[in-house]
Amino acid sequence: MWWLMVDTRRARPADLAAVGNVLDGGLLRVTDLPAAVDRGDVLTAVSATDTVLGALVLAGTEITAVAVRRRRRGQGIGTALVGAAAREREGLVAEFDERVRPFWRSVGFDTEPIGNGRYRGRY
């Protein structure tokens, strides 16, 4: 498998539109994204040309959203984002749909069903 080289960093105000597009592409909504960026709660994965390829949103130790551009999925970008979050905050948790459970397990989360096709994961 070909792995794309990416850097992870905190989102900047100038990244807001790109982060919003990535999250929209993943069908994810984040309440008050500008404030999350201002607080430093949004991490991005960026290419060598500083293009935002993925984004992860935190609320304390909870990952509330993680998304990667559709054409860039399967290249380790989501894994890099979760790894960056884990280096910053201990005891990460996430709630997610059954369809993305394999991703969360692959990045080291223990998962358990919470009902209605939803799972909770702990790192």
Q: Assign a percent range to the helix content.
A: 25-40%
Q: Biggest sheet, strands in spatial order?
A: 1-2-3-4-5-7-6
Specify the CATH homologous superfamily of the domain at 7-90: Gcn5-related N-acetyltransferase (GNAT)
- In total, the number of strands is 7
Explain what this protein looks like in three dimensions.
The protein has 123 residues and is α+β, with helices and mostly antiparallel strands. The chain has a domain at 7-90: 3-Layer(aba) Sandwich (Aminopeptidase). Helices cover 28% and strands 33% of the residues. The protein has four helices and seven strands, in the order E-H-H-E-E-E-H-E-H-E-E. A seven-stranded mixed sheet has the order 1-2-3-4-5-7-6, sandwiched between helices. A hairpin with a 2-residue loop joins strand 6 (110-115) and strand 7 (118-122). The chain is globular. The two termini are 25 Å apart.
Write the layout of secondary structure elements.
Blueprint: E1 7-10, H1 16-25, H2 33-39, E2 42-46, E3 52-59, E4 62-68, H3 77-88, E5 93-97, H4 101-106, E6 110-115, E7 118-122
Question: What's the short story on this structure?
Answer:
By secondary structure, the chain is of the alpha+beta class. It is built from 4 helices and 7 strands; from the N terminus they run βααβββαβαββ. β6 and β7 form a beta hairpin.
